[in-house]
Each structure stands twice: as C-alpha cells, then as structure tokens.
Amino acid sequence: xxxxxxxxxxxxxxxxxxxxxxxxxxxxxxxxxxxxxxxxxxxxxxxxxxxxxxxxxxxxxxxxxxxxxxxxxxxxxxxxxxxxxxxxxxxxxxxxxxxxxxxxxxxxxxxxxxxxxxxxxxxxxxxxxxxxxxxxxxxxxxxxxxxxxxxxxxxxxxxxxxxxxxxxxxxxxxxxxxxxxxxxxxxxxxxxxxxxxxxxxxxxxxxxxxxxxxxxxxxxxxxxxxxxxxxxxxxxxxxxxxxxxxxxxxxxxxxxxxxxxxxxxxxxxxxxxxxxxxxxxxxxxxxxxxxxxxxxxxxxxxxxxxxxxxxxxxxxxxxxxxxxxxxxxxxxxxxxxxxxxxxxxxxxxxxxxxxxxxxxxxxxxxxxxxxxxxxxxxxxxxxxxxxxxxxxxxxxxxxxxxxxxxxxxxxxxxxxxxxxxxxxxxxxxxxxxxxxxxxxxxxxxxxxxxxxxxxxxxxxxxxxxxxxxxxxxxxxxxxxxxxxxxxxxxxxxxxxxxxxxxxxxxxxxxxxxxxxxxxxxxxxxxxxxxxxxxxxxxxxxxxxxxxxxxxxxxxxxxxxxxxxxxxxxxxxxxxxxxxxxxxxxxxxxxxxxxxxxxxxxxxxxxxxxxxxxxxxxxxxxxxxxxxxxxxxxxxxxxxxxxxxxxxxxxxxxxxxxxxxxxxxxxxxxxxxxxxxxxxxxxxxxxxxxxxxxxxxxxxxxxxxxxxxxxxxxxxxxxxxxxxxxxxxxxxxxx
Length: 734
Description:
single chain, Rossmann fold, seven-stranded parallel beta sheet, six-stranded parallel beta sheet, 25 strands, 16% strand
C-alpha cells in the first residue's frame, strides 16, 4: 500500500516524528510549528503504514472542538471514517469509561455530572447544614480547595490537617461533599478523572483489558496536564504501550489551575526509552517576531530548549508605544485598528490582548466611541447561560428524579408559589430521612408537614415533571426538548424580563432544540453502549455538561477580538496588540515575588508574542488609574528583554497640534512622525505642562475631537480638571 502521501507534505522534523520507531516519544512543538498536523499524520501512519487497528489507538486532546477537528482531519487524510478510534478530552474519555464500568467504579447507573455552578450550589447548601460561617469560609474558596485536591488525586481521607484551622474546616466540608455526592449519584469534573484513575487501580482486570486494547496512546498539549491526568496516562501506558506526547514547555501557562510543567520536563526520566524530537520551523510569524520570542523566553531557566525559525520574511519591526495614560493607550490602539481596517483588512484578523480582564473596559470604551465592532472572546458560553441551564435541569429530572441540583434550580422557576421557607422544610426532611429532595417533597406532602397552599404548589411541581416524562415517552430527542421548554413555562418566564435580553434568552432556548436535533454521540458508534431513548437523552445532557467547560467562543460578525492572554493560546492573528505592558500588571504583581510565578508570566508573554503573524505592537502607560487611584508605571521587563534591533519606538505620544493655517479655530491632532504624518512647529503633548490666562498652570490629561471641534482636558493646579476648546483656550506650552 502506498503511504508516501502521508509524509510528502511534511518537513524533516515533522516526518521524523510521524514515522518514529521509538517506543515512547516526546515531541516539543513550538508555536505555529504544525503540532496538530503531526498528530493527525502520526495516526494516519499507524493506521496505513503499520496496519494498526483503529481500536488500538487512543488520542487525547484538551478541548472537545480539538477532538472533533482531529477526527475530521484523520478521516479526510485516510479517506474513510475511523469510528472505532477513541479521540476525546481527558474528561470525555474518562467519563466514557465510567459510563461503561459504572458498577466497578462504585457509581449508580444513572449518575450525572455536576457542572461548576451546580457544584457551588451544593457546597453552599452543605456549609449551611454544617452551620459553618460562610462569610469566613466562602463557598467559592471551598470549591477551589476541593477541586485542587482532586486534581492532585487526593480524597478527604488522604489529607492530614495537622490541627490547622483552615485545613480542618476545608476537610469537614470536603468529607460532607463526598458523602452527599455518593448519596445523590453525582460526580463533578475533578471526580471524573479521579474516579477513572481509581477504576484502573482497583480493577486490574479492567486495566489489563484497556492496556491490551490501547497499545498506542497520543496526547496533545501535554504541558497542560495536571497530576491526576498524568497519573492516569502512566497507569494506562504501563510498560509495553507506545506513548507519544506533544507539547511545548514554553507555552505552559495554566499552573494556577493545576497544570504541572514538571510533567513534560520529567517525561524522559519517567519513560527512559523515549526520544525527543523538536519542531522548530514556524509557519505563522515573521522572523522578527520569532527572534523576539526566542530571546524573551531564553531568560527562563530549566527549559528543554528549542529555537523557532522561519523561511519567511523578516517582516516589520515590533512597535512599542509609551502612552501618557490608559485612555491614550486605548486611543492609540483604536487609531491603528482604524488604519488597518481602512487598508482593506478584516477586523477579525486583529486582536487586543491583555493580562487582566479589568483592562478591557477602557479599550471597549475607545472602540465604542468610534463605532468599531468588537468581541470579548470567551464570555458566557451556550451551555452556561441561565435559560439553558434551567431547561437542562427539567430534562435531567426526566431521567433521574433524585437529582438534587436540578430540583434546587427549577423547583420555583418559573415561580409557582414555593417559597424559601417551604424549600428549607424540604431540605430539612431530606437531611432527617437521608433522602433526595424529590423524595423529601413526597414525604412533606404525605405527612402534611406543609401548609395546604405550599403542599399544593409542591404537588403541582411533582405532577408537572411526571406528566412531562409520560408525554415525552416515544418522542425524538429534539421533540422532548421542545416539549419540555414549551410546557415548563420557561418561555413565558423569560419573556417577563422584556427587551433584548428576553429575546436573546428565547432564541437560546430555540437553539437548544436545534442542538438536540443535530446531536450525534460518538460514544454510541460502538456496541458497548445500549442505544435507548433515555440513554440518548442522558448522553445529550452529559455532553452539555462537558461542553460547558470547553473554552470555545461563538462565531460572530467581523469584529476586533479582545481577550486575555490566557484565552489567546492556540489562536493566531495578522495584527496583535499586547497592551498594559507594565511592571505589576504584566508581569502581574501576584507573580513577581517568586521565580516560578515570574517564569510562567514570561511564558504567557511568549504566547502573546507568537500569536502575531505579521505585525506586533506593545504598549504601556506612564500612569494608569487602578482601583480609583492613579499609579505611576514602569515599563515591563519583558519589553526590555526584546532585543533593541527588533523594535521601533513610537516616540512621540499623540499630540495636540495647532494648524499651519492662521485661520481662527484651526486645530488638528497630529501623529507621531514615525507614522508618516507631518508635525507642525507648535504642538501640545499629552502629559505636558501648559499655562492658561485665567486658570493658571496645569497638565494636559486627555483630548477628544478633531479640527475645530478639538477639546483638551487639563488638570489645573489651582482649579482642578477643565475641558477647553483648543481653538479658544490660548494655551501656552511650558
């Protein structure tokens, strides 16, 4: 069989990785070096050149979107569908194992996944029941603690508190949380991986089965794995299976959420018979941008080491702009964007990146002032929206009445006369009888523990769910969803909000019906899952929970992209702005006191630089208003770490220039001469001290408008801030 087409389009490094005979392989894939291409071609090589069965391959990605893309590209390259191959995220694959081996994993058959919001609700309820002060011990903090322990593979019983008050309290809540989840048949995201790891360890026969089946394991974005993910992989790989991991230690930026850069650094020690192949040829950025990134990241210690290069052009120098304040910085960015767009470029090919979400406000204001469409990347995603979660809760109750989080969410949504006191009574009965909230509702009615009005309201809720289940029997999935949305009263409930918000919520509910109509669960392609109407609904709900944690944003109109540097990983743009490049902001002040934190910040800057394909701007402000106070800023050390021969400084800040013509009222805003505009003899700069005949001396803070309409904001020493029409102000530059 001719397999040459699999290797023909690859460079030497990529070809070595794809056809490597090594028992284990670490592929250090630099930014823009084609790592997904290598993974896809490696799988195609195994299937075609080495005649490996698709059932023997397990491929792990970090997002559901990446998994779908990988499967699609493999099918395209091979020329046929490889349905038996397992391709998915850590959570998706581990969840699939738990569904197939629920009994051995110690779970009920109808277990369901708690998303982050449902998990928080449960923790809040437990804190109240344990009579713990939720002001001193916030639920969010407890949620973070529990998830962090699970990421490390630790249960409450594995942790010593050493009489520390904080740890003792956290462990009390963690233990109660574990008990409640066991009773209610619930697992959270961290539990999916932890339980799947324990499934291997507690059931050697199951482990042997999967070790014999998955002889080839491939992992993408390996630098982002946490402790439990790597432990799960190592157990599955054993001593005989081939493990190929692809990643970049220079792009490890998620330490704050449990990712361990040590995993990729220690891989060669843990798998002593492994080879390392470096993908260093970049197909994205100009040579100037790559050289800047290489020099910056070289300041980090303990790197595995690589040097990005390209056959492409040197490209433009990196432009560095020193703004007077954050308004001036935002205005500069928007001015450059307008130049970019009027030159025939797409807005969506430009991105503004920042370290902190709080920085977006000023940028958004500047974009709004000029009417430029923009999008905040990574806002509320579809399955996280309130109206969608309400509808999904109704659907979850159709297959499991004992889903307490679903009952909590929609027992009085829409409002049906079940108040807080009634719900508290139901919760109390659930605790006393150690039963679900649904069963507690039944007991409250049977034992007349509620007023007749409250009892009737509870009965109406119970009957509504029972009737829905009966009416939905035999319906297709999308018909079930449509029926539930229609008969739950959610449409009317959200219509009461009025305006665009109500319209958007209703459109989202309609989109949920569409999503159900097009749902196709890849886990049901094999004989291992019994395809019934209820299991199909359960699979749809599980996928909704898994997708809620995914990081993909919706497609929109042509718009400038705004996002945090963390959100930018994996993306690329022709034009990139790195804004707020100041000490304390980036690198962030919380990460500057230790080498580990500082190096992760530098890796984050490396990610930001390598998002740019053609042009990169870096900007910082001399002063920035933060938390109500104006702070004097120092340029980020990361700017200093970029070689001077690769940059051009936009030296003059935007200036307010008197026009050449002596005509009354003639005033224009000029640009830096380096940007191609002519600068007149007389000019007033932002930050410059000026004198006014009536108000005395002051400092120019801001400006707006053009020509005859130009105004400046001056902070006068004697009378404070004033906006003045420049053509009448007769300001003297000092």
